[in-house]
Specification:
Helix content is 33%, strand content 24%. The protein is an alpha+beta fold. Strands 2, 3, 4, 5, 8, 19 and 20 form a 7-stranded mixed beta sheet that branches. A 6-stranded antiparallel beta sheet has the order 11-10-9-24-23-22, with helices on both faces. The longest helix is centred in the first third of the chain and has 33 residues.
C-alpha cells in the first residue's frame, strides 16, 4: 500500500467516525426533544417554578359568651425586592435608602442605622429580589412599615413583600387548654382543634413561586393566584368565668393535698352543655399544669360514687326499698374468703337509705351479693341497660373505654359481684360517671355531654348541635325520686354534711374514696387513693351537675375532705353569679323614697345622669346651669341665673363647675374643703371686678 492510499484510508476512517458521532448526537437530540421532551420540560418547570399551598387563616374557638379561647393572629415575614419598578434607577434607590435604614433602625431597634444601610446597599449590589428584612412582624407593625420611604411607593413599586403566616394563640393561656386542644397532623387529634379541624382549618390557596439565585423561592406575582378560604368559627359550651373558678379551686386543693393529678367537670343538667372542664397534673412540688384530659380519658375504678347505680338496680328490680333493713355486721362483710370493710367500722342495722348516706361498703356488697348471686347476670344486664358499658360518643377525641364486667369474663370470680357493688373490678371515666348522675338530676333522661353548640362561617350558622339523648328514661319516676332523696341525704346528714352542706342552697351527691391498684401488684403494696365527689345543685331544682376527682392525695384522703372543698367552692361561686338559681325574693316598694341627690351644675350633664338612672325630669329649662331639687315625682330644677357682669350663685355646685364658671367671669377662685359649694365670699348678684379673688368653701 502506497502512502497516498494509506492517507486516504485514514481520512475516510476519521470522516466516518465524525459522521457517526454526528448522527449519534442528532439521534440523542431527537430522543430528548421528541421522545422524552415532555418529561424533561416538566422537570425544568418544577425546578424553576412551582405552586405552593398558602395556609388559610384558621377559624376561632369561642366560649359560650363569645370570648376568644383560641384564635389565629397573622404574622408576616418581610422581604424586599431591590429591583422593584419604583427603584430601578440607582438615583431613586440611593436617595432614600438612608432614610429607610433610619426608620427601620428606630422601629425595630435590633440594628443600627449604619448596619441597615450597609445591608440594603449590599443587597442592592447583589441584585437581591427576595431579601429577608424581618420575621414575625405583626399586622399593626406592617401597616406602619408600609409608610416608610421606598415602601410607601406602593405594593409593586416599593418592593416590599409581606409573606403572611398565622400564629395560633390562646388568649386565656392555660384555661381549658387541653379541651381546646391543638392541631398535630402526626399524632391523634387533640380537643376541639383536632375534632373540628376540617371546619377550623379552612381551604388552602395556591401561589406560583419561582426559584432564584441561592435556591430561594419568591412569588412570581404580588397577589395570590388562588386565595385561601378562611376557616369557620367553633362556638363551644365553655363558660370562661366558671372555667376559671374550676381551675383555680382544683389547683388550690391539689397543692394542699399534694395530689398527683385531678379534674373537675361542670355540666348543665337539662342541656348536657359542659360549662367547665379542668385538668391538672403535678409537674413539680406545688406546680400543676394541664398535661392530659383526665376528665374524658382516664378510665379507673370509681369507688363509692358507683353505689348509685347499684342501688338503682336493686330498687328498680324491687329487691329492696329505701326503708329495708340491712345488718352491716359492725361494718364488715365476709364473702369468697375476703372481708369487705367500711372505712368507719361499727355500723349495725341500717336502712337502705342510711347505708347509702353513710357510704357503707359492707351494706351495699351484702345487698347486691345476697340478691343477685344466684343470677349475677341480672345485675350486670341492668348496668348495661343504663349504658354504663358504652362510650358516650363525645364531640372531642380521646374518650376512655368503660369496663363493666359480666359473668362471661375470664376474670369473673366469686368476689366480683360484691366488689362491683361499690365500684371495684370495673372502670369508668369521670365524665361517664357524671353523665349517669346528671341523668338522675334530669329525672331519668340521659343525655350525652355537649362541647360544641354551633359552627359559624362569616357570622352565619353552618351547623348547630343539641345534646344527643342516650335514653329518655333510665328508670321509673319512683326510683328516681328515691335516689334523689338518698343523694340529698348524703349532704344533709351523711358523709358530705361537714364540708358541702350550706344554708343557701341544697346539694345532692355522693362521696367516693377508692383505693388505687398498683398494676399487677394489686392493692398489697403502698396504698394510694382516689377521692371524688359527684352530685348536682340546687337539689330541689337541679341546674348544674359536677364531679371532682383527685388522684393520690397525701395525708387526708377521704373524699369529703379532699374533693368536697373543691365542689363547694365551685358551686358557691356559680350559685352566687347565677340569678336564675336564687329563690324568688318579693319586692317591696316603699313610698316617699328620696331620689338620689345631685350637685348643681351644667344642665346637659345633669340631664344625662338622671336619664341613665331612669329618673323622670320635670323641667324644660334652657339655662346652661341648673340646681336640681328633690321631689317625690321626679327631678325639678331651679335655674342658675348667669350674667357676665354679676357674681353667679354657685351654691350646691361641685368644684369643677364652680371654678369653670367663676374663671370664665374673670374672678380668681380660692378653694377650701371638698364636696359641693356651701359658701362663697362674694354674694351672688354683686358687680364683678376682673381678677378679684373669691373664696369658696365646699363640704
Amino acid at each position: 500500500m502506497n502512502i497516498r492510499t494509506d492517507i486516504l484510508l485514514r481520512v475516510y476512517i476519521a470522516f466516518g467516525l465524525i459522521v457517526l458521532l454526528a448522527f449519534a448526537v442528532l439521534f440523542k437530540l431527537f430522543h430528548l426533544q421528541v421522545t422524552e421532551g415532555a418529561k424533561w420540560r416538566a422537570m425544568a418547570d418544577s425546578l424553576s417554578t412551582r405552586y405552593v399551598n398558602v395556609e388559610a387563616v384558621r377559624g376561632n374557638i369561642l366560649s359560650s359568651d363569645g370570648s376568644l379561647l383560641a384564635t389565629s393572629v397573622p404574622e408576616y415575614e418581610l422581604r424586599f425586592d431591590l429591583k422593584a419598578g419604583g427603584i430601578e434607577k440607582d438615583k431613586e434607590f440611593y436617595e432614600k435608602v438612608d432614610s429607610l435604614a433610619e426608620r427601620l433602625s428606630l422601629f425595630f431597634g435590633d440594628k443600627t442605622e449604619r448596619q441597615y444601610t450597609n445591608l440594603l446597599r449590599q443587597a442592592r449590589r447583589e441584585g437581591a429580589r427576595y431579601f429577608l428584612l424581618k420575621r414575625n412582624v405583626s399586622h399593626q407593625q406592617l401597616k406602619k412599615i408600609k409608610t416608610f420611604p421606598i415602601f410607601n411607593l406602593g405594593k409593586y413599586k416599593g418592593g416590599l413583600i409581606a409573606v403572611q403566616k398565622n400564629n395560633r394563640i390562646l388568649p386565656f393561656k392555660g384555661l381549658a387548654a387541653r379541651t381546646i386542644g391543638y392541631r398535630n397532623v402526626h399524632v391523634q387529634p387533640v380537643g376541639l382543634e383536632g375534632a373540628y379541624g376540617d371546619y377550623i382549618n379552612g381551604e388552602s390557596g395556591r401561589r406560583l413561586m419561582q426559584r432564584i439565585a441561592g435556591g430561594i423561592w419568591m412569588p412570581v406575582n404580588k397577589d395570590i393566584e388562588i386565595a385561601p378560604k378562611d376557616g369557620a368559627d367553633i362556638i363551644s359550651t365553655i363558660d370562661i368565668n366558671i372555667q376559671d373558678v374550676a381551675q383555680n379551686a382544683l389547683r388550690k386543693q391539689l397543692i394542699k393535698s399534694d395530689a398527683d393529678h385531678g379534674c373537675v367537670i361542670l355540666m348543665e343538667v337539662s342541656t348536657g352543655e359542659i360549662k367547665a372542664i379542668a385538668n391538672a397534673t403535678r409537674v413539680s412540688e406545688g406546680i400543676y399544669e394541664e398535661k392530659l384530659n383526665y376528665a374524658i380519658a382516664e378510665s379507673a375504678e370509681p369507688g363509692s360514687t358507683f353505689k348509685l347505680a347499684s342501688y338503682m338496680a336493686a330498687l328498680e328490680d324491687n329487691k329492696v326499698d329505701t326503708n329495708s333493713l340491712i345488718d352491716c355486721e359492725g361494718g364488715t362483710y365476709r364473702v369468697y374468703r375476703h372481708t369487705i370493710k367500711d372505712s368507719h367500722l361499727g355500723n349495725g342495722v341500717l336502712t337502705v337509705k342510711q347505708a347509702f348516706e353513710q357510704s357503707s361498703n359492707a351494706a351495699v356488697a351484702k345487698l347486691i351479693n345476697t340478691n343477685y348471686r344466684d343470677n349475677p347476670r341480672q345485675f350486670t344486664d341492668h348496668l348495661y341497660k343504663l349504658h354504663l358499658n358504652k362510650k358516650l360518643g363525645l364531640q372531642i377525641p380521646g374518650e376512655g373505654s368503660p369496663l363493666i364486667k359480666n359473668p362471661d369474663y375470664k376474670s369473673w370470680s366469686g368476689l366480683t359481684l360484691a366488689q362491683m357493688a361499690y365500684g371495684y373490678e370495673m372502670k369508668m371515666t369521670p365524665l361517664q360517671m357524671l353523665t349517669f348522675y346528671n341523668s338522675v338530676a334530669n329525672n331519668g333522661k340521659m343525655i350525652a355531654p355537649l362541647f360544641v353548640k354551633e359552627i359559624r362561617r362569616l357570622g352565619n350558622t353552618v351547623e348547630s348541635f343539641t345534646a344527643n339523648v342516650i335514653d329518655e328514661k333510665i328508670c321509673s319516676d319512683a326510683t328516681i325520686g328515691k335516689l334523689q332523696a338518698m343523694l340529698e341525704g348524703v349532704v344533709e346528714i351523711g358523709t358530705g354534711k361537714e364540708v358541702i352542706k350550706n344554708s343557701l342552697y341544697k346539694v345532692a351527691g355522693k362521696t367516693g374514696t377508692a383505693q388505687i391498684a398498683n398494676g399487677a401488684l394489686g392493692y398489697r403494696t403502698k396504698r394510694s387513693y382516689q377521692a371524688s365527689f359527684c352530685g348536682y345543685f340546687p337539689a330541689d331544682k337541679p341546674k348544674y351537675s359536677m364531679i371532682v376527682v383527685l388522684n393520690n392525695p397525701k395525708g387526708a384522703y377521704y373524699a369529703a375532705l379532699v374533693a368536697g372543698p373543691v365542689f363547694r367552692e365551685v358551686a358557691d361561686k356559680v350559685y352566687a353569679n347565677d340569678k336564675a338559681m336564687y329563690s324568688h325574693v318579693q319586692e317591696r316598694l316603699v313610698g316617699n323614697t328620696k331620689l338620689p341627690s345631685s350637685k348643681a351644675g351644667q344642665n346637659q350633664a345633669t340631664r344625662q345622669v338622671y336619664k341613665s338612672l331612669g329618673i323622670k325630669a320635670l323641667y324644660a329649662s334652657k339655662s346652661e346651669f341648673v340646681h336640681p331639687v328633690d321631689t317625690s315625682n321626679g327631678v325639678a330644677v331651679r335655674e342658675v341665673i348667669v350674667n357676665s357682669k354679676q357674681v353667679p350663685d354657685i351654691s350646691g355646685m361641685g368644684l369643677k363647675d364652680a371654678v369653670f364658671l367663676l374663671s370664665n367671669f374673670g374672678l380668681r377662685p380660692i378653694v377650701k374643703g371638698s364636696g359641693k359649694v356651701v359658701k362663697q365670699s362674694l354674694e351672688a348678684g354683686t358687680r364683678i371686678i376682673k381678677g378679684y379673688p373669691i373664696t369658696i368653701e365646699l363640704k
